[in-house]
């Protein structure tokens, strides 16, 4: 984690308003809500509106789940968001990413072992994070596989998870005690250094 303590404390159920309660209850499942939701609930109207877009990117995107998670994990890693990374490692595994692929995501598009399609997706995420633009060569490589709507969803996925990473990092959202830190040495060795 970039900082050791929250700058904005997560809410608890007694803090929830008419705007935040439905979102929080929908995202609580059988246990407490994730800290990302509990923290953003400090701004109930923002939470209510943000979650609509976030749900599209995560659950309504035209991209297949595995490829979506490649993009999200690479974005979270580039933004040095330990929270985003750890949460999406579990999601990535659930949609078919191997531990070896997750580890390779820390090296990016230039790492050996990526298929050309995966490499182009990662290159796009890297370009969007670094220069906020997909180059012509990368766009052409993507366009041989992905539809116009899928290309749009790719850009909005990187944008959404860059935004969320900025919020998580700046607000000091801490990992839940039950969240696996994978790969563990990345957190211990300072690849997500503290501020």
Helix content: 55-70%
Q: Note the total helix count.
A: 10
- How many domains, as an integer? 2
The count of strands amounts to 0
- Report the mean per-residue pLDDT as an integer: 92
Structural notes for this entry:
The chain contains ten helices and no strands. With 195 residues, it is mainly alpha-helical. The chain has two domains: 12-60, Single alpha-helices involved in coiled-coils or other helix-helix interfaces (Up-down Bundle); 63-195, Up-down Bundle (AhpD-like), CATH 1.20.1290.10. Helix 4 runs antiparallel to helix 5 and helix 4 packs parallel to helix 7. It is globular and about 50 Å long. It starts with 19 loop residues before the first helix and ends in a 7-residue tail after the last helix.
Which terms summarize this structure?
Single alpha-helices involved in coiled-coils or other helix-helix interfaces; mainly alpha; globular; 195 residues; single chain; AhpD-like
In short:
Helix content is 60%, strand content 0%. The protein has 195 residues and is mainly alpha-helical. The chain folds into 2 domains: 49 residues, Single alpha-helices involved in coiled-coils or other helix-helix interfaces (Up-down Bundle), CATH 1.20.5; 133 residues, AhpD-like, CATH 1.20.1290.10.
């Amino acid at each position: 984690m970039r900082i050791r303590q929250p700058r904005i404390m997560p809410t608890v159920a007694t803090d929830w308003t008419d705007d935040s309660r439905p979102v929080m209850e929908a995202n609580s499942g059988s246990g407490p809500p994730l800290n990302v939701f509990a923290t953003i609930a400090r701004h109930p109207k923002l939470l209510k509106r943000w979650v609509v877009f976030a749900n599209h990117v995560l659950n309504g995107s035209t991209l297949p789940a595995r490829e979506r998670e490649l993009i999200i994990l690479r974005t979270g890693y580039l933004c040095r968001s330990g929270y985003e990374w750890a949460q999406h490692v579990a999601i990535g595994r659930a949609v078919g990413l191997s531990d070896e692929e997750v580890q390779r995501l820390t090296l990016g598009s230039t790492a050996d072992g990526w298929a050309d399609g995966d490499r182009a997706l990662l290159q796009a995420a890297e370009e969007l994070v670094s220069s906020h633009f997909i180059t012509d060569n990368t766009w052409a490589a993507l366009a041989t596989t992905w539809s116009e709507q899928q290309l749009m969803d790719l850009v909005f996925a990187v944008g959404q998870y860059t935004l969320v990473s900025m919020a998580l990092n700046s607000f000091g959202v801490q990992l839940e005690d039950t969240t696996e830190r994978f790969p563990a040495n990345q957190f211990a060795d300072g690849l997500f250094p503290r501020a």
